[in-house]
Each structure stands twice: as C-alpha cells, then as structure tokens.
C-alpha cells in the first residue's frame, strides 16, 4: 500500500468482528433471513425422505393411490422452499442497504473531522475505494454470504444427521465430508486474505491515478505526457490483473478440492449403501434417499469456497474501513470550550509559535511573536518556502502549533470550540478551491443562514458581481467541477468573496490577489481596503501593492519574524526586506 502505514495483520474472524457495532443494528433481520434460508434448506432436505417413501412404496408394489399424498407433500415442500427463499431476500435487502449507507455516512463525517495532516498523507483514490467498493463488499456479505455460511454449515450438519438416521454406517460419509472441509478452509484463509487486501489497495491506487489525471488534465496535455501517464496506468492496472489472477488460482485450487468432496461422497454412499442393501440391512428406498441427500448437500458444500473467499474479502474491506475510522483527529475539541469575551474585538496574538510538520525533522516556524491589534492589517512577507502559508494555517487550526500559542482576544485558539473559532476567522487560500455547485453555494460555504444581500455585498467587494451577472443564471449558475470553467482570477476573487462574506472579525488571506491582472488587482484592492478597515487581517503578500494595503509589515525569515514596521520603514531599514520585495517584484515582471 502506497499511502498509509502497513496494516496490522489480523485473523479473518477478528477483522469481521470489528463490524460488530454495525451488524448489531441488523441482527434481527439477519436472524429472520437466516431462519428463512434454513427453513428453505430444511424443506429441500425433506425431498430425499419423500423420495425414499416413493421408491419403497413402488418396490413393495404399492399402487398409484399410495403415491398421491407423497407427491402432494413434495409439491407443498417445494412451494414452501420457494416462498422462504423470497422471504429471505425481502427481509434482509433494506436493512443491509441502510447499514451500508450508515457506514458510508459515518466514514464521510469522520473524514470531515480528520485534520489536514491526515489528508496530506492519504491518496484520494484510497479513500474513494473504501467509501464505495469496500462498503458494497461488506453489504453483500452481510446480506448473503454471512447468512449462507451459517445456513450452509447447518445444512451440511443436518444432512449428516439425515444420513446417520437413514443408516448409521453412512456416518462415515458425513465425517468424510466435514473433516476435509474444515481443514481446507483453515488452509485457505491466510493466503486468500493477503491477496484480497492487495487487490483492494491496488484498486484504490488506480482510483487515485484516475482522479489525479482528471484534475491534472491540463498539465498532462500541455506537457504532452498523455502517453506516459497511459503507460503508467497500464502498468498498475496490469499489476491488479496479476493479483486478480492469483486470487482466481488460489480459489480454483480450493474450489476443485471442495467440489471433489460431494462427488467422492456420492461414490462412498453408493458403495456403503450397496453393501447394506446386498446384506439386507438397508432398503433400496433408504439408499436412494442417502444418495439424494448427498446430492442435495452438493451446493452447500460447493458454495463454501466462494463464501470463504467473500468472508476474506469482507474481512480486509473491514480492515480498510476501520483504518480510516480509527485515525484520530489531532485537532481536538476542548472538553470545556472557553467563550470569547464579548463583544469580539479580533485581537490576534502569536506567542513564541513553533511548528514542525508531522513526519518532518526540521521545524518550519521557530518562535514567532506577533501582535495584531483589532482592525489592524498586517502583511506577511518572506521568501518562497519561508513558512508564510504554514503560519496562516495555524490561526483557523488547520494545524496546531507544536510550541507556543495562537490567541484570539486573549483566548488560546485550542481552548475555543472549532466552530466558534472558524465562525470568527475566515480564510482565503492562494489556490482557490471551488465546488461543483452554484456561485451562491460556493460563496455561502460557511455555516448559518446567508441572505441574498450578504452574498451580493461579498461578490461586490471581491469584484465578482459584474462577471457573475454575465453568467447564464447569475448567482445560481453551477460552476464546473472545481470551478474550472472560470478564469484563475475569477476563481480567486470568488474565494475572496467567500472569505469576506458576513464580515468576519479576523481575515487570513494567503496571497489573495496573485492571479489578478494589475487593473483588476487595483480594483479589488480598493474594495478590500474598505473591508479590511474594520477587520483584523493577516495577509500573505508578494506584491508591493498588496503590502501597501497593510498597516504594518512583518518579515518572515528562517522561521522567525525578523522585522516589523510600515512598508516604508522596512524599505529604509531592512536590507533583507528590500531583497524580498525586489525578488518578488522581479518575479512579477517576468510573469
Ligand atoms: N504539508 C506539508 N508537509 C510537510 N512540509 C510542508 C508541508 N507544507 C509545506 N511544507 C514545507 O514547509 C516549508 C514552508 O512552506 P510554506 O508553504 O509555508 O512556504 P511559503 O512561505 O508560503 O511559500 P510560498 O511563498 O512559495 O507560497 C517548505 O519547506 C515546505 O516544503
């Protein structure tokens, strides 16, 4: 598996047992369905006994009249079997579909709770395959496989009892059926589960490839890398093919061995029964009944191979599901959240803030101290890779500081409930993500009711109103997946509108104007100036024009703030600042 730690090996039973909390929700319908299936199997097993009576009646010279009640019984039993099969399916279908939905909803809700650090580590395709195909595997097993594992095992035991009742020496046939079955099952379990797991992980990897190439289609085409990507996909899909073939090979051996069992049993029954009939210990009818019983047990025994395969597949689907569900959210809610002092002023303090990314060895931030007064705008400036974006993620707690603290109005952000924190702090990222939804829905992402007037105000501030009105359905226009049908500047402005909607107390803007042309940038800046006037803002800035919006500028170097002042003060006093601004400006002139 390419994205996550190696899974802890568990037995199939232990993996299946983890589904317990969900299975308990459907235990009644499962029990009814199993009962109906058992009834149907039991009804089927009555047929050999009826056959015995029919044959014995004919061999004893009984007339047609004697056969009528037996034939009527066979008909009733047959109809009962069909009816019970219908009941079995009807009883279980809805509850297991509900169970699949509940598990899927719980997974999605958990994914929403998990921190950015988790999503940085996991490939989208791996999560997708867990949320879709693994849960379908689990549902199918619970609706069918699990029930038949129990029912078929009981049917085989019941058949064994019928054989012994017909004539005790047939017990040898029963033992000859059951013992190898148990042996083969245990031999098969470990090997198949490993391959089933590999195949599910490879499906996840393939889903990731498709996802990445769809999202990155422009880059792939622009660089003419289509054939390269196709070859890589073909190689990975060939690996999955090999795994599937290995699965089939393992299954084929098990299947062949299992299918051979009832065939051998039929021969053994004929041999033992033939001797019994020859020696006068057994009626011909009992022999026919014994053979019919063994033939009837053929399906329950043959299906065991398939059922075992499904059980192993489901066990590893369960492992994969719980690997995500077990992932702990490192951004935890405080047990007793503190309220913000009212009215909220929006004072932001960073006190000796340290930060190291999970799995990284070097810290990115090494003791940041910065006070931003209510309503003040501070621009954060630094060379590329200096940690500006990282610093902005600490305010809304996308990551938690690894040392020091971030405070809002004097309260550590870790002591606030995240919903309260994020209701007061709005963020716009450099790379704006838009969802497959209307413009209105994209802007009004945050919680709570939003009025049309608020949406319009936010769109006007971010200079979106004009182009949005030109869209076919205005604010109700559905913008394409990830907003790709809009220009980069339009997307960035929509992300800005989302951040300023509802006038939050604190705005964190990560280079919000980087994709705008000079003319639009000037217009947005004018509008932003009005918005920023009363709002505490931390703005990552590369361009001098964005820096000019700020009351003060903080220079980030080597994980520390090395200079703070107005733009002109820093230009006059800090050579490092002049260097950063010059390099950003020259970068701009190149683009
Ligand atoms: N999710 C992550 N996991 C590990 N390291 C990361 C992660 N994100 C960023 N980094 C590292 O942290 C450092 C700071 O990155 P950051 O994006 O904060 O810089 P930046 O100043 O915003 O850069 P730019 O101006 O180019 O956007 C870089 O060395 C980067 O490689």
TrEMBL record:
The ABC transmembrane type-1 domain extends over: 31-313
What sections of the protein cross the membrane?
Answer: 31-51, 66-87, 140-164, 170-188, 250-275
Q: What is the lineage of its organism?
A: Bacteria, Bacillati, Actinomycetota, Actinomycetes, Mycobacteriales
Q: Which SUPFAM superfamilies match?
A: ABC transporter transmembrane region, P-loop containing nucleoside triphosphate hydrolases
Q: Which organism is it from?
A: Rhodococcus antarcticus
Localization recorded for this chain is: Cell membrane
Supply the name of the protein: ABC transporter ATP-binding protein/permease
Q: Which UniProt keywords apply?
A: ATP-binding, Membrane, Nucleotide-binding, Transmembrane, Transmembrane helix
What GO molecular function annotation could you give as one example from this UniProt entry?
ATP binding
């Amino acid at each position: 598996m390419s994205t996550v730690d190696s899974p802890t090996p568990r037995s199939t039973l232990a993996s299946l047992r983890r589904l317990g909390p969900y299975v308990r929700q459907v235990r009644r319908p499962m029990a009814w369905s199993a009962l109906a299936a058992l009834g149907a199997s039991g009804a089927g097993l009555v047929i050999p006994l009826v056959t015995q009576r029919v044959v014995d009646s004919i061999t004893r010279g009984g007339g047609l009249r004697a056969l009528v009640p037996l034939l009527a019984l066979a008909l009733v039993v047959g109809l009962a079997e069909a009816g019970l099969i219908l009941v079995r399916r009807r009883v279980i279908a809805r509850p297991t579909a509900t169970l699949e939905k509940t598990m899927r909803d719980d997974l999605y809700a958990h994914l929403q709770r998990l921190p950015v650090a988790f999503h940085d580590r996991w490939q989208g395709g791996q999560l997708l395959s867990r949320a879709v195909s693994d849960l379908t595997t689990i549902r199918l097993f619970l609706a069918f496989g699990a029930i038949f594992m129990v029912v078929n095992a009981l049917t085989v035991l019941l058949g064994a009892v019928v054989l012994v009742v017909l004539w005790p020496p047939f017990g040898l046939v029963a033992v000859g059926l059951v013992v190898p079955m148990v042996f083969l099952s245990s031999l098969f379990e470990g090997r198949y589960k490993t391959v089933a797991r590999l195949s599910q992980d490879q499906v996840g990897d393939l889903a990731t490839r498709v996802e990445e190439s769809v999202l990155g289609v422009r880059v792939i085409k622009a660089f003419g890398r289509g054939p390269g990507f196709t070859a890589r996909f073909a190689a990975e899909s060939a690996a999955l093919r090999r795994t599937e073939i290995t699965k089939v090979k393992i299954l084929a051996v098990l299947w062949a061995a299992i299918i051979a069992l009832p065939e051998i049993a039929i021969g053994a029954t004929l041999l033992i029964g033939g001797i019994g009939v020859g020696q006068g210990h057994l009626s011909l009818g009992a022999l026919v009944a014994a053979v019919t019983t063994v033939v009837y047990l053929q399906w329950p025994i043959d299906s065991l191979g398939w059922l075992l395969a499904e059980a192993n597949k489901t066990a590893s689907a369960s492992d994969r599901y719980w690997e995500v569900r077990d992932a702990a959210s490192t951004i935890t809610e405080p047990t007793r959240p503190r309220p913000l002092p009212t009215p909220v002023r929006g004072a932001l303090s960073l006190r000796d803030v340290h930060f190291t990314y999970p799995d990284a060895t070097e810290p990115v931030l090494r003791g940041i101290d910065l006070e931003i007064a209510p309503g003040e705008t501070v621009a954060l400036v630094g060379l590329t890779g200096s940690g500006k974006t990282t610093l902005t993620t600490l305010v809304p707690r996308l990551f938690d500081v690894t040392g020091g603290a971030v405070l809002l109005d004097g309260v550590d952000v870790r002591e606030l409930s995240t919903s309260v924190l994020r209701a007061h702090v709005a963020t716009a990222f450099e790379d704006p993500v838009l969802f497959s939804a209307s413009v209105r829905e994209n802007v009004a992402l945050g919680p709570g009711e939003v009025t049309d007037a608020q949406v319009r105000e936010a769109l006007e501030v971010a200079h979106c109103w004009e182009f949005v009105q030109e869209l076919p359905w205005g604010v109700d226009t559905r913008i394409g997946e990830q907003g790709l049908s809009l220009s980069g500047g339009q997307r960035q402005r929509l992300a800005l509108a989302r951040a300023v909607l509802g006038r939050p107390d604190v705005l964190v803007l990560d280079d919000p104007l980087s994709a705008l042309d000079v003319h639009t940038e000037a217009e947005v800046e004018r509008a932003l100036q009005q918005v920023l006037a009363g709002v505490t803002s931390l703005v990552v800035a590369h361009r001098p024009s964005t820096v000019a919006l700020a009351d003060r500028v903080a220079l980030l170097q080597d994980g520390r703030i090395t200079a703070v002042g107005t733009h002109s003060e820093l230009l006059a006093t800090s050579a490092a600042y002049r260097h950063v601004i010059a390099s950003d400006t020259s970068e701009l002139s190149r683009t």
